[in-house]
Amino acid sequence: MMSACCNGGCSSDKPPVDPAYRRVLWIALVLNAGMFVVEMLSGWNAGSASLLADAVDFFGDAANYGVSLFVLGLAPVWRSRTALVKGAMMGLYGAGVLAVTGWHVFSGTVPKAETMGLIGMLALVTNGFVAALLYAYRNGDSNMRAVWLCTRNDAIGNVAVMLAALGVFGTGTGWPDVVVAAFMGVLGLMGARTVILHALTELRSEAKPQYRPVKARGVVLKRR
């Protein structure tokens, strides 16, 4: 559910780039970009707010993975600021999904349950695979955490889409679809809050002056 940051003077703090993590991000980017196309076309054809919401989420995640690849070798402060942008994008996604949901409520659309269930299952398999690849990095810095949270939220959203498909099939109404879409929007807003708070905590920690003990005439002084 969805990522630029700069600060000169931190080049000495650049972390080593993990080749395995880079490969995982490339795999995630390609899979998410592909699922965006599939879900966008399917959601539009099926008239499903939850599928369209999930499609936009896949697009946002693909963009997030691309940005994450760009900042991998940058200093921690750059990556923390990138996480802030990611958090903002997740928040925009959540608000956008709620707006689309409201439009579907107003129009009274009844989506195609079969399409919702089939595409929801495909999306779940895709996100489950990506989540398994990213699991080892879930407790990294705010940037890694943002990537993990996006993927985890996506998998939860996919399960919800499949439940919505069952609801639409059983009731013959579009209400299960809009309820799930609204849930996904709220999930995006909650994820945005978590990522933004984590990134702000890191930035405050990085902004604190660092002191090093220095000896002067036999007296230990502290120099910034």
Relevant terms:
224 residues, mainly alpha, 6 helices, elongated, membrane, zinc ion transmembrane transporter activity, transmembrane helix, ion transport
Structure description:
Keywords: Ion transport, Membrane, Transmembrane, Transmembrane helix, Transport, Zinc, Zinc transport. GO terms for molecular function: zinc ion transmembrane transporter activity. InterPro entries: Cation_efflux_TM, Cation_efflux_TMD_sf, CDF/SLC30A. This is Cation transporter. Pfam families: Cation_efflux (PF01545). There is one protein chain. This protein has 224 residues and is mainly alpha-helical. It has one domain: Cation efflux protein transmembrane domain (Alpha-lytic protease prodomain-like). Helices cover 75% and strands 4% of the residues. It is built from 6 helices and 2 strands, in the order ααααααββ. The protein has helices at 19-46, 49-71, 76-107, 113-134, 142-171, 175-207; strands at residues 212-216, 219-223. Strands 1-2 form a two-stranded antiparallel sheet. Strand 1 and strand 2 (219-223) form a beta hairpin. Helix 1 runs antiparallel to helix 4 (113-134) and helix 2 (49-71) runs parallel beside helix 6 (175-207). The longest helix has 33 residues, at 175-207. The two termini are 42 Å apart.
Name given to the CATH architecture: Up-down Bundle
The count of helical stretches stands at: 6
Helix content: over 70%
Query: How large is the radius of gyration?
Result: 21 Å
Total individual domains: 1
Keywords: Ion transport, Membrane, Transmembrane, Transmembrane helix, Transport, Zinc, Zinc transport
GO molecular function: zinc ion transmembrane transporter activity
InterPro entries: Cation_efflux_TM, Cation_efflux_TMD_sf, CDF/SLC30A
GO cellular component, one term: plasma membrane
